[in-house]
Each structure stands twice: as structure tokens, then as C-alpha cells.
Design goal:
Layout: H1 3-22, H2 34-46, H3 51-68, H4 72-96, H5 109-176, H6 182-192
Helix pairs in contact: 4-5
Length: 201
């Protein structure tokens, strides 16, 4: 088989898969605003995408987001109900098309619920980690502030002690450099005074 023949065979296979998948789709009539329709047309034109496929994918993602926003207990119950209803719809489609069964497409809601639980736990851990890091940062800043406040009075006391020591040393230096003492002055005066026993008396 040539490469061109293999390519045609691949096209047939893709078509069968697409038809099999589309056979499980359930039609729904939806009315949208003119603004929404304009954006759908613009996006589909920009990316050369079928408008029906674009709307289907957008709606599917929106439903998943809505499902994720449900309360955990209610989400679990609704997931089970939705999966049971999906199986029932698939069985009806198979009966209409004369098939024994058709493969269910789309989201398995019970599995999606489990994924939501995992995502929520991960988010909680990340949030707790951020809170712990913030608390540690605040405690560290408070500890640094307390240390600075404790060091400042000690530095002030040391400065005052140094100032007092300098003053004392200055006074001692002045005292050591003072003129002769009173005793020395008396001795000098007695030596300079004239003697009463002078021969001229």
C-alpha cells in the first residue's frame, strides 16, 4: 500500500471515529445573545473552527467549572446521578441507531469529582504553606526589631560610661598639671624674704 493509499485509509478511520463520537451527542437548542454570537463567529473564523464544535467545547468547559464550584457533598451526589443518566442516554441512542451499545463520551463525573478533591487539597496545602511562610517572616521581623530595641539602651549606657571615664581622666590630667602646691609656695617665700640678722640691721 502506497503512502497516498495509507492516507486515505487514515481519513476513513478518522471519519468513523468522528461519526461514532457524534452519535453519542444529544442535540440541544440554545439561544444566545447577539454579542455572544458575534464572538462565536469571530473566534470560529479566526481559528477556522466549526461554530458547532466551538460552542460544544465552550459549553463543556463551562459545565466542568460549574460542577467544580459545587459543595463537595452535593457535588459527589450529583456526579453519581449524572453518570447514571449519561449511561441511560447512551443506551437510548444505541437503541435508536439499532446498535448493541455506544461508547459514552464526555466527562465521567465521579472521576471529575475525585480530581476536584485532589485539586482542593493541593490548593489548601499551598495556602497553608503561604500562611506559614508569612507567619515566619513576621516573627523574624519582630525578633529583629526587639533585638534592635535591646541593643540601643545598652549602647547608650556604654556611651555614658565612656563619657564619664573621659571626664574623670580629664580632671586628673588637669590636677597633675597644676602649679606648685601651697607648701612649696611657703618654702619659696621664706627663701626670698630678707633675713633680720643682716649686718645692716
Amino acid at each position: 500500500m502506497s503512502k497516498a493509499q495509507s492516507l486515505i485509509e487514515q481519513f476513513y478511520q478518522e471519519e468513523q471515529e468522528r461519526l461514532a463520537q457524534e452519535s453519542t451527542f444529544t442535540p440541544i437548542d440554545v439561544s444566545v445573545s447577539s454579542a455572544d454570537m458575534a464572538m462565536i463567529n469571530t473566534i470560529s473564523k479566526r481559528f477556522n473552527k466549526d461554530k458547532g464544535v466551538l460552542v460544544r467545547e465552550a459549553l463543556s468547559q463551562a459545565i466542568i467549572d460549574m460542577f467544580s464550584a459545587l459543595e463537595p457533598v452535593e457535588r459527589k451526589m450529583l456526579a453519581k446521578d449524572a453518570d447514571e443518566l449519561a449511561a441511560s442516554i447512551a443506551a437510548e441512542i444505541a437503541e435508536e441507531q439499532g446498535l448493541s451499545s455506544v461508547e459514552e463520551t464526555g466527562v465521567n463525573w465521579v472521576a471529575q469529582d475525585k480530581q476536584c478533591i485532589k485539586d482542593e487539597r493541593k490548593a489548601e496545602k499551598e495556602q497553608q504553606k503561604m500562611q506559614d511562610e508569612l507567619a515566619e517572616k513576621i516573627l523574624a521581623e519582630l525578633a529583629d526589631k526587639n533585638t534592635e530595641e535591646a541593643v540601643q539602651p545598652e549602647q547608650t549606657i556604654q556611651a555614658e560610661e565612656t563619657s564619664e571615664e573621659t571626664a574623670e581622666e580629664s580632671q586628673e590630667s588637669i590636677a597633675s598639671e597644676a602649679p606648685f602646691s601651697s607648701d612649696e609656695n611657703d618654702i619659696n617665700e621664706s627663701q626670698e624674704a630678707p633675713s633680720n640678722n643682716s649686718i645692716f640691721a
